[in-house]
Amino acid sequence: MAAGMHKILSQLDSPRKLQGLSKAELNQLAAEVRQVLCNLVSTRSAHFASNLGVVELCIALHAEFDFLHDRLIWDTGHQIYPHKLITGRYHEFSTMRMGGGLMGYPNPNESPYDLFMTGHAGCSLATVLGLRSGDHLRGETDRHCVAVVGDGAFPSGIVYEAMNNATELKRPLLVILNDNKMSICPRVGGIASYLDRLRTNTFYTGLKTEVVRALNKVPVLGDPVERFLAQMKEAIKAGLHGGMLFEELGFSYIGPIDGHNIPLLRKYLRMVKKQTGPILLHVVTEKGHGFEPAAEDPVFFHTPPAFEDHNGKAVLKTTGGKPSYTNIARDAILSQMKARDDVTVMTAAMCQGTKMEPIREEFPDRFFDTGICESFTVAFAAGQAKAGLRPIVNIYSTFLQRSVDQIFQEVALQNLPVTFMLDRAGLTAPDGPTHHGLFDFGYLRIFPNMVVMAPGDAADLPLMLDFSLNLEGPSSLRYPKTTAETIERTPAPIELGRAEILCEGSDGAIIACGTLLPRCVEAAEQLAKEGVHVSVINARFVKPIDRETILNEVRQKPLVVTVEEAALAGGFGSAVLEAASDEGLSTSHIRRLGLPDRFIEHGDRNKLLASLGLDAAGIARAFLPDGETSSPSEQGRSVSV
Ligand SMILES: Cc1ncc(C[n+]2csc(CCOP(=O)(O)OP(=O)(O)O)c2C)c(N)n1
């Protein structure tokens, strides 16, 4: 990092020093933070536009509060980069999102300024409220508690559950609504329209003469808080005050105010600090502020690939690339929707991530972006299924965890034909433990009626989707965030609970569930060179498991190795153990490869897989004598939370 270029930032070892900086120096600091953000994305993909948008808000917050004592949660946590820079992590910043380096989300293991890992959106109000309540019960009543929540995260149901409880608790609490008009894609729904109306409110634009008249009634001198309250009263009298929805929920609504004006932000923060009840401060920011291409196309610049800034123009470092499983899945959905008019698809605010923009364009009536509302999405899909449609719920594995109860009650219990497509199932690499999709086998296979599948390669995926759309009950299929691979063969047709045998060998069997299958084929090839001949089986189904094929291997082979890119606890290997044990077979020669019972850090996907023994060499090692085998439970970096 060229520290000389960042005179203020490179010296800022504590946010407490912000107090001593002049207005000009704080503006200079904001410019330096933006420069560092631009430098980072010239080296690798990272969250960008959201971070550019919160620079001034972040500086103002740290200038007015002391978050070693006070409480601050950024929600969603990808807006954390300026906060990391200001809280003493400038010199490590170039390690962002790299294995062993800084995490792209708040991380309590990195700094006392990071309280929760907030990779999943919407929980900040609830956790801040808990902190508030806990501090109160412990007698620490002088701490300020602040949640900064994005307008994309704001429609999450848990936000309203928290608001409902905030007014009951009757304690001071500051919620800052960071309104940049965007989720990753343009925000959707009634709350979005409501926020749009508030943004055009005259209190913000100041265009109407009534505002000027109302505010002119208030003396300019005197206590700023009293003045502010008087202003509010006058504004309300003049019918200019927005935010009634929040007021009626028991929050004092203040704003909207300009989120790029540090002195103004500080003035308001000083005022609200003195209030006693819950407050919602509506701050208007621009996603991508300070870098024109990002402000103009915040969707692309949410997490852009590495690019160089050529005089204000972004020039990508690499273009093109091979299709990913996400592309294959999108194309499969699209062709199903072309062929059948009863098929619908829904995403919870991840249209861009799931690459479904062409579906949104072509089938606007059968495509649903529900916002960050996964629980709602699943229950909504259940309703559509009951009405006779064939809904596809396309949600990342990790975010679908939000809706486990709706999967249970609304879908599985009613045996409704909803298809779950779980993108990002497996290690999501630079995002880390909040985003790795490792638990879905465990949380899906426990429910009766549910069919749980995993394509072994790209050829399996469209076949599985087609199969699933013809089932009478619920089903799921999962695929990771990586380049699609196809094993050369004529894939066997998909049959319920039927695995596919790729090759046979008498020395052992590799039974793969999911897209590590090509690594298993490589491992078998490596072993064959050493004279060890193993079968490779594409399990395809976690539930119902192919008892016949798999238990045959268990009976006949000296060693059976199950492979999955999922948590071992409750996963595919566990299903094999259960089936063998239920059959009265010995299980001592079954070895499970997968993710150990720890949270796995961010890092390069291939390196993480190798460190966990899930690359071809690691899978082959499982067949070698014990001393040469490394147990997955001793591998991989973990993170304790
Ligand atoms: C529960 C959950 N669902 C989906 C996501 C994926 N996601 C990450 S950021 C984001 C948009 C958040 O919008 P906003 O809070 O307004 O932040 P902005 O990026 O606009 O600053 C989404 C949908 C998530 N993090 N958590």
Please characterize this protein's 3D structure.
The chain has 25 helices and 21 strands. With about 650 residues, it is α/β, with parallel strands linked by helices. Residues about 205-210 and about 625-640 have low confidence and may be disordered. Strand 15 (about 510-515), helix 21 (about 515-530) and strand 16 form a beta-alpha-beta unit. A seven-stranded mixed beta sheet has the order 9-8-10-11-13-12-17, sandwiched between helices. Strands 1-2-3-5-4 form a five-stranded parallel beta sheet, sandwiched between helices. The structure holds thiamine diphosphate. Thiamine diphosphate binds near residues 120, 121 and 153. Thiamine diphosphate (TPP) binds near residues 120, 180, 348 and 372.
How is this fold's topology laid out?
Layout: H1 23-41, H2 49-53, H3 55-64, E1 71-75, H4 81-89, H5 124-137, E2 145-150, H6 157-169, E3 173-179, H7 190-199, H8 202-205, H9 209-216, H10 224-237, H11 244-248, E4 252-258, H12 262-273, E5 278-284, H13 292-296, E6 307-310, E7 313-316, H14 325-339, E8 343-347, H15 357-362, E9 367-369, H16 374-386, E10 390-396, H17 397-400, H18 404-412, E11 419-423, H19 440-445, E12 451-453, H20 460-468, E13 475-478, E14 500-506, E15 508-513, H21 517-529, E16 534-538, E17 541-543, H22 547-556, E18 560-567, H23 572-582, E19 590-595, E20 599-600, H24 605-611, H25 616-621, E21 638-639
Helix pairs in contact: 3-12, 5-6, 14-20, 16-18
Residues 50, 53, 76, 78-79, 119-121, 150-153, 180, 182-184, 287, 348-350, 372, 374, 399, 402 line the site of thiamine diphosphate.
